[in-house]
Design brief:
alpha/beta, Amidase signature (AS) enzymes, eleven-stranded mixed sheet, two-stranded antiparallel ribbon, 20 helices, globular
Length: about 550
């Protein structure tokens, strides 16, 4: 890299990426110009207006769940080549409008799809449960022959990956088709997916709002229906934040339920702390369960990743059972924006009408407060050594990283500063154990099935204003599985009064700015109760569809 300007490295990479989009999949200059004047890209229906997709391709990408497509693919009623072509083309359109992609490998995907079609015809059976289904993946996953820069200019010097990540190997073994990698923020530790290589991912619901992060490219691509099922990672909300910002479903499993090994992160590994989890973003709970069931399966994940848990997936089908639902208390330091409070209240009312038992959780003790959990998680993030891949290239820090949002306005560090490294590790462990035990006791005392909570105090907001993610990171601290369910929209008519916060690291509520933005709720269960989390989320989702109308 010596002697090479970082801007030159980026310019070369951008040209390489642009050249990989086939000429006949490119939007006209007129349509691109009009799209810039149309912030609500989903409403603008540009894939149909572009004329680049056939009626079959529009149908494939718009009118099915992944589960429905798999039935047609396994029976031969749809070819993987047709389905893959449709999603490749739609992803290419999404990229031109939202900068949601990093790497594309369309030709390899089409070759893979043809191979799978030939296999089905020859053998009379699918390769596996994901036979022929295109799946998008976050940039941090390694695909042989493709770079994984995770938004760091310094990593542009690295050669393409020489082997696949564990999950990539597994998805291919299960019959999936991989075709794109998706955009992330510089450092993968902010809620705005912007970096100096691939630019800023835009939210297709409203391009003036953040798409979330760090799996923001996945959120935008799935929302645009350039992907039917995508894989992200989550250490503080990085699946759930893009899901709630972009109006799709997202699931953070218990860590290592999905193979995580072989990724590029830019972070040091092996130090005790919060561990990220890999998980899906999709258009339905059914598809989240499909991915989890397929990958976790009979517990074979350990065959691909030494760190993966070998527990099998235990499906639940008692969908008519009533639930005992604990409702997380609003934290005074992180007050809910009016549309979020309205969505949560509507959800509680709908669940009550449907006969489910509601328990209001007070969250009074430190060990159970959102703010305390946030501060403890933050202390885990900042202790210990850190490599500086930004300084290594000379690239500037992007705005959301420069803001360095932190929850420390809400109280002191849980662990005394200035201790030695081993004393710090022990003190953090003891503080975390108290949080874990307090929540365990609450679950037992209240006989809870799930907790219902906001995914954030806000909807998608303006660029670089999302701030600290208190309502997601607390469940990473606990390693609890958590699911985002889209529910309702922000409305300047229903919630016309603006709201400002007393600190400078949390977003304000501007009714005009976020009008129409998706709202969401979050469903949480204890560690390793992933099956129960998605089972309960499915029940809740159905209740909201029946009783949750505005």
């Amino acid at each position: 890299m010596a002697g090479t300007n970082w801007q030159d490295l980026v310019a070369t990479k951008k040209q390489e990426c642009e050249q990989k989009i086939p000429t006949d999949w490119r939007l006209s200059a007129d349509l691109l110009a009009s799209a810039k004047q149309t912030p609500r890209l989903i409403e603008a229906d540009i894939p149909r207006r572009s004329g680049l997709l056939s009626e079959l391709e529009l149908d494939v990408t718009e009118n099915y769940t992944a589960s429905q497509l798999l039935v047609k693919l396994a029976s031969g009623n749809m070819s993987s080549l047709d389905v893959t072509t449709a999603f490749c083309k739609r992803a290419a359109i999404a990229q031109q409008l939202t900068s949601c992609l990093t790497e594309t490998f369309f030709s390899q995907a089409l070759e893979r799809a043809q191979y799978l079609d030939n296999y089905l015809k020859r053998e009379g059976k699918p390769v596996g449960p994901l036979h022929g289904l295109p799946i998008s993946i976050k940039d941090s996953f390694c695909v042989e022959g493709v770079q994984s820069t995770v938004g760091f200019v310094a990593l542009l010097k690295d050669e393409p990956a020489k082997k696949n990540s564990a999950l990539v190997k597994m998805l291919l073994h299960l019959g999936a088709v991989l075709y794109v990698k998706t955009n992330i923020p510089q450092t993968m530790m902010t809620a705005d997916s912007e970096n100096n290589i691939f630019g800023r991912t835009l939210n297709p619901h409203n391009t003036a709002l953040t798409a979330g992060g760090s799996s923001g490219g996945e959120g935008a691509l799935v929302a645009f229906r350039g992907s039917i099922l995508g894989m992200g990672t989550d250490i503080a909300g990085s699946i759930r934040i893009p899901a709630l910002c972009c109006g799709v479903y997202g699931f953070k499993p218990t860590i290592n339920r999905i193979p995580f090994g072989g990724q590029v992160s830019g972070a040091m590994e092996g130090i005790p702390g919060l561990i990220p989890a890999a998980g899906p973003l999709a258009h339905s709970i059914c598809d989240l369960r499909l991915l989890m069931r397929s990958v976790v399966g009979d517990g074979q994940a350990w065959e691909y990743d030494a760190g993966a848990v070998s527990a099998p997936w235990n499906a639940r089908d008692d969908t008519n059972r009533s639930l005992t639902i604990g409702v997380l208390a609003e934290d005074k330091h992180f007050p809910l924006h009016p549309p979020v409070r309205r969505a949560l209240d509507r959800a509680v009312n709908a669940l009550t009408r449907a006969g489910h038992r509601i328990v209001r959780l007070d969250g009074g003790a430190d060990e159970q407060s959102v703010a305390y959990a946030s501060r403890l998680a933050f202390q885990y993030f900042i202790y210990g050594p850190h490599d500086d891949l930004i300084a290594a290239s000379g690239e500037p820090v992007v705005a959301s990283v420069a803001k360095a949002a932190a929850p420390m306005f809400s109280g002191p560090f849980p662990v005394e500063q200035g201790l030695g490294p081993f004393e710090t590790i022990q003190a953090l462990h003891e503080a975390r154990s108290k949080v874990l035990d307090a929540w365990r006791q609450t679950w037992i005392d209240e006989k809870l099935d799930v907790i219902l909570a906001p995914g954030a105090q806000n909807t998608a907001v303006g660029y670089d204003t999302y701030g600290w993610p208190p309502y997601t990171v607390m469940w990473n601290l606990l390693d609890y599985p958590a699911c985002i369910i889209p529910f309702g929209q922000a409305s300047k008519e229903l919630d016309p009064e603006p709201m400002t916060t007393s600190d400078d690291v949390q977003p304000d509520y501007h009714p005009e700015e976020v009008d129409g933005a998706p709202c969401a709720i979050q469903v949480i269960t204890p560690r390793f109760q992933d099956e129960k989390c998605l089972w309960a989320a499915d029940i809740i989702d159905r209740v909201l569809a029946t009783y949750g109308k505005q």
